[in-house]
Write a structure and sequence with these properties.
The complex is a heterodimer of chains A (535) and B (250). With 535 residues, chain A is α+β, with helices and mostly antiparallel strands. Chain A has 14 helices and 16 strands. In chain A, strand 12 and strand 13 form a beta hairpin. In chain A, helix 3 packs antiparallel against helix 4, helix 5 packs across helix 8 and helix 7 crosses helix 8. Chain A is globular and about 80 Å long. Helix content of chain B is 50%, strand content 3%. Chain B folds into 2 domains: 96 residues, no CATH class; 124 residues, Cytochrome Bc1 Complex, Chain D, domain 2 (Orthogonal Bundle). Chain B is mainly alpha-helical. The N and C termini of chain B lie far apart (60 Å). Chains A and B meet through strand 5, strand 16 and helix 14 of A and helix 4, helix 5 and helix 6 of B.
């Protein structure tokens, strides 16, 4: 700190900022002298040394807090020159040395990296085009969820402010206007009524045209959507709030509705809703469409049921089982690779009884497609993968659909074809197993597939895995959005997970504890008696 | 201070202190299995300590015995007779009602490398070879920059923009992608080791490192020898880590 003070005194032009200073608690608004005046009153006290020390301490405290408050202002301004070196290290490979969004990785990424020379930023809290510094800072800090822009909260705060300053130099002319804050109407708390009103507005202002009737990004306008630079752009899937670029809170949603997402087909709606507070009703409705976070499952389980398991994917039975969300990512090991996978999540519900096991899979896909060479589309498909047999020990087939030496067992469903059981020695080496025993029932509605795959629990032959209760069975998933051109190795997938068939609820947990308690008591009484006898 | 002279109080204090140190004093936290082993050792040591001579043993057993037989301690006895069975019963409940956890997967994170590998028909010595591009210090910047380009086009999806293993694809992968910022990864490895891992990927791992789980591609199919050495330079340059080297005699 001393160094900073002296630098400030000497150079003047040098901007001293550091996180320690910027983070200093309450800045002291008093001018430099006042603290001294208070403290000098102690100079006449009987213990002059202590008083002198207090004076020094007081002066330092005041000086530091003044410097701190000034430092905070400077920190917020950031230093473009310092930002440049951070930018070159952390940002340039995607956004380009010139900030034009043409870094070496640009062509592989979808959506493409931002071109800072346009001065157009998607996420703002302002009216008009110019964002506040805080807006830019927030985007750097939390990233753009659902895209390849990560959250840079790992960078020191001052580095992020410096980046803000540097980014603005790419479009200084376009960003010179002072930003004007977007005022939001008074917040409306979520309630059944508000959500109902929000749903009416959703239809009235035609949100469904892009975002789909249930918000799954499957609206009729989807294929035509382009950003301001002519690149195709996907509408947000409103049921996956964790992918919202500008944040998942109701406040974030209300702000996006109010002033739109700049550079995209998402306009500002503050003037097109009936009453300003409808923005909040809409935000409440959108927030009701899905959870704020996906809560990915780590261990999958299949519920034991005594009764029949329904074939209908929309049966009430399935709503009583909590979905286990599994994230899927692009296959980038075998050519052709899939860097921008269309399907990023499969929700699994599973159940078994003494005869059969059933997997209920739900995943979003904006188009229901079958193989059509003219349109360059393929059949939508999904597969659930297991080893061919349960082995003890850690060994299992290669997670990417097996390899030449060790095959996996697949339950593969394809739109228009149904389910097959197959062995796979790699993504393109599938061999159907004779005498298929699996059945499938699929429905597609409003951008979502729901599928029930069923198979007998046991297996009499060695070609099929026999499911056993209580055993941790390796399982993996693959999915193809044929409408997005996915087929073969162009897929999304997971690595191995564990599936466990829950054992029927036993009453062990109610019997064991009382027995243990009684045994403890008996043991204590015995010890006491022995001690008494000896004493 | 006579309280602290009682062997019983001492024993309890030592055990409690040892537990607090093991549980909260170690960063990153030690696993329960390790704490259990250490606590057993501490417990045995304490038993040896209190039973060192007859006086000491008496001082240790005294409070226990008096609790068991002394008429004046009837209340304490009754309380123990209620509390202890309930505690153990509760413990039994948590054990019986626990949902089973996935079996632990033991996996050698940095397995021993082979002596040499075949790279596109060429033999590359893994034990002892230095990054050939480092000899030419003048071109360091150029190579690191080229490595950055290769990284951002191929590796970033899993290992992340910040090289910390938090790429977009990371949440779906188990084992998770390596975090190069972590001093426990590239900082403790030689560059040739990285060359082996990048060239041969997950499928080239030995059995003890569960090759069937790893999503790391074998990059020998896609990158040239020079590109791999460049990426390695970028990894060290961008994270500020230093590769482990053979000590040279001065």
């Amino acid at each position: 700190m001393r160094a900073l003070v002296s630098r400030r005194g000497a150079g003047g032009g040098v901007r001293p900022y550091s996180t320690t200073l910027a983070a200093a608690p309450v800045p002291d608004p008093r001018p430099l002298g006042s603290g001294n005046a208070d403290d000098t009153g102690l100079a006449g006290s009987p213990r002059p040394r202590r008083a002198a020390r207090l004076v020094v301490v007081g002066a330092v405290v005041v000086a530091v807090s003044v410097v701190a408050s000034v430092g905070q202002v400077w920190a917020q301004k950031g230093d473009a020159q310092a930002g440049k070196s951070v930018y070159e290290k952390k940002c340039a490979l995607c956004h380009g040395d010139k900030g034009d969004g043409k870094g070496p990785a640009a062509d592989l990424l979808e959506p493409r990296p931002r071109d800072f020379t346009t001065g157009v930023y998607k996420i703002r809290t302002t009216v008009g085009k110019v964002p506040t510094d805080q807006d830019l800072f927030d985007v750097i800090t939390r990233g753009m969820p659902g895209t390849f822009m990560p959250a840079w909260d790992v960078l020191a705060e001052k580095d992020r402010w410096s980046l803000v300053a540097y980014l603005k130099t790419f479009a200084a002319e376009k960003l010179k206007e002072a930003p004007k804050k977007q005022e939001l109407p008074k917040e409306v708390a979520p309630s059944a009524e508000s959500i109902k009103r929000g749903k009416e507005m959703f239809e009235a202002i035609e949100c469904h045209k892009c975002h789909g009737a249930d918000g799954r990004a499957d609206g009729p306008s989807r294929p035509e959507l382009k950003d301001d630079w002519g690149h195709p752009i996907r509408p947000a899937n409103l049921t996956k709030r964790w992918t919202f670029r500008g944040g998942a809170s109701r406040g974030d949603i209300a702000m996006r509705l109010a002033n739109g997402v700049l550079g995209t087909p998402m306009p500002s709606f503050i003037d097109s809703v009936e009453k300003p507070e409808d923005i909040w009703h809409l935000a409440n409705f959108i927030a009701s469409l899905g959870p704020e976070s996906p809560n990915y499952a780590t261990l999958l389980s299949a519920r034991a049921v005594g009764a029949e398991i329904p074939d209908d994917p929309n049966a009430e039975f399935w709503t009583r089982i909590a979905p286990q969300n599994v994230p899927l990512v692009g296959q980038v090991i075998i050519d052709p690779r899939n860097f921008n996978p269309a399907i990023d999540l499969v929700a699994l519900r599973a159940a078994w009884n003494e005869r059969e096991i059933a997997f209920h899979l739900a995943w979003d896909d904006p188009t229901q497609s079958v193989a059509d060479p003219a349109k360059k589309t393929y059949a939508d498909a999904v597969s659930v993968q297991f080893p061919r047999a349960l082995v003890t020990g850690p060994e299992r087939p290669y997670f990417l659909m097996g390899d030449a030496s060790d095959a996996v067992y697949l339950l593969r469903w394809e739109n228009g074809k149904g389910v097959v059981e197959a062995d796979a020695n790699g993504p393109t080496k599938l061999a159907p197993i004779a005498g298929g025993m699996a059945t499938a029932n699929a429905v597609y509605a409003n951008g979502q597939y729901r599928l029930v795959l069923k198979r007998p629990l046991a297996s009499k032959d060695a070609a099929r895995l026999a499911f056993r209760p209580g055993v941790f069975t390796p399982v993996a998933f693959q999915a193809w959005d044929g409408g997005a051109g996915e087929a073969g190795t162009r897929m999304s997938l997971t690595s191995w997970y564990y599936l466990r068939l829950e054992e029927p609820q036993s009453n062990r947990r109610f019997v064991v504890p009382p027995v243990v308690a009684v045994l403890t008591l008996v043991a204590m009484l015995l010890v006491g008696r022995v001690a008494n006898r000896r004493g | 201070m006579s309280l602290f002279r009682s062997r019983f109080v001492q024993a309890v204090l030592i055990v409690a202190l040892a537990f607090v140190v093991l549980r909260f004093g170690i960063r990153p936290p030690a696993p329960w299995s390790v704490i259990k082993i250490y606590m057993t050792v501490v417990f045995l040591a304490v038993l040896i300590y209190v039973s060192a001579d007859a006086d000491s043993w008496r001082s240790f057993v005294g409070p226990i015995r008096s609790t068991l037989v002394d008429p004046s301690r009837r209340l304490v006895r009754a309380a123990l007779a209620i509390v202890l069975p309930i505690l153990l019963g509760y413990y039994a409940y948590t054990q019986a009602a626990a949902t089973p956890e996935a079996p632990a997967e033991l996996r050698a994170v940095h397995p021993a490398p082979p002596g040499s590998i075949q790279f596109r028909g060429k033999e590359i010595n893994i034990s002892g070879v230095e990054n050939p591009l480092r000899r030419d210090q003048a071109s360091f910047k150029k190579h690191a920059a080229a490595g950055g380009e290769t990284y951002i086009k191929n590796c970033v999806y899993c290992h992340g923009d910040n090289l910390d293993g938090h790429g977009q694809f990371a949440p779906a992968l188990s084992p998770p992608p390596a975090d190069f910022q972590d001093p426990g990864t590239i900082a403790m490895l030689q560059e040739a080791y990285l060359f082996w891992r990048i060239a041969k990927g997950g499928p080239g791992l030995p059995r003890e490192s569960t090759p069937w789980n790893s999503a790391m591609p074998a990059w020998e199919d896609r990158l040239t020898e020079e590109q791999i050495w460049q990426v390695i330079m970028y990894l060290y340059d961008a994270t500020g880590q230093q590769p482990r080297r053979w000590e040279t005699a001065h």
